[in-house]
DNA sequence: CGCTAAGCAGTATTTTATATACATGTTAAA
DNA sequence: TTTAACATGTATATAAAATACTGCTTAGCG
């Protein structure tokens, strides 16, 4: 049971931006910092932008900013938005052709379990991911801490 | 977020055997009934056998039987046994090299969510998957209902 | 005794989802 | 008008999972 890297990267982008505060960050910078594919990250960024999580600024000296306060970004919401396929088993997905589906109780049970999973994430926000360790995170991501 | 078909097939094998009751079922028969790979199913079956879920009988007129009552087979336990990789994101897996892991709170949060997921499954058993619909399941799986 | 139907085990191939790379376009500041 | 950023679409590569193949072992039956 895995989430995709797509979702993982979305989380990392948001963490990076949260730590940066009001300073713009570029995709290139974030990709470098985490050592991941710049191109893949770009798609994640576009998605986050379309969904209203971040603001993108084109052109020279462009970059990215959070559009909402970290306290207002729910992890549950994010996972629902970025993890495109949450159908845990075949019977929960499109094109299901498991023959016993009409009589089998797997579906409601796994749905309940998935809801419990997401409910936990709903209780946390991006702010909870940073906690009191923002300076340490900044160091790890090699962000030059901006003078306030 | 998907479980593997491996886990899915394990569930189906157990359901099949539960409906069959004390009659033996062959791997071939189960694979045919669900229209899935006989070879893959065989590996699932071996695993289930090693873990004590089912008893296998070799030789002519051999086959498979449940080793425990359906009420005693927990779904949570089964998923923990058959879903080999439960590390949802990179930082929960071996070989993690996400640079912010030391300061990031993703790990405990996703662990909590995973525990909530499994806790729901822990509340159900194989018997709950059948419910009162055993005859309907038997029909769907094309099991000739054995006279009691 | 040996044939046959079943499970056992290891390896190899195929498939699929995901991730990555590439090529080109658009925007806006300097 | 150049340059540094994001935008978009397509193609390729990678890795995990599923499936197939080959040969072996066990045990009932005639």
Automatic annotation (TrEMBL), chains A, B:
The keyword Transmembrane helix does not apply. It comes from Billgrantia pellis. The lineage of its organism: Bacteria, Pseudomonadati, Pseudomonadota, Gammaproteobacteria, Oceanospirillales. Pfam families: Rrf2 (PF02082). Transmembrane segments: none annotated. PROSITE patterns: HTH_RRF2_2. Keywords: DNA-binding. It comes from the Bacteria. GO terms for molecular function: DNA binding; DNA-binding transcription factor activity. Gene3D superfamilies: Winged helix-like DNA-binding domain superfamily/Winged helix DNA-binding domain. SUPFAM superfamilies: Winged helix' DNA-binding domain. NCBIfam families: rrf2_super (TIGR00738). This is Rrf2 family transcriptional regulator. One of its GO terms (cellular component) is cytosol.
């Amino acid at each position: 049971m895995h989430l995709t890297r797509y979702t993982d990267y979305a989380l990392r982008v948001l963490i990076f931006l949260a730590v940066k505060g009001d300073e713009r960050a570029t995709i290139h910078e974030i990709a470098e910092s985490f050592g991941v594919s710049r191109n893949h990250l770009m798609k994640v960024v576009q998605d986050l932008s379309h969904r209203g999580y971040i603001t993108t600024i084109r052109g020279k000296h462009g970059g990215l900013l959070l559009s909402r306060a970290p306290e207002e970004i729910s992890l549950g919401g994010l996972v629902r938005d970025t993890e495109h396929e949450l159908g845990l088993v075949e019977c929960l997905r499109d094109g299901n052709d498991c023959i016993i589906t009409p009589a089998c109780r797997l579906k409601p049970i796994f749905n309940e379990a998935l809801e419990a999973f997401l409910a936990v994430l709903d209780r946390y926000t991006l702010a909870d991911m940073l906690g009191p360790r923002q300076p340490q995170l900044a160091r790890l991501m090699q962000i030059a801490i901006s003078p306030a």
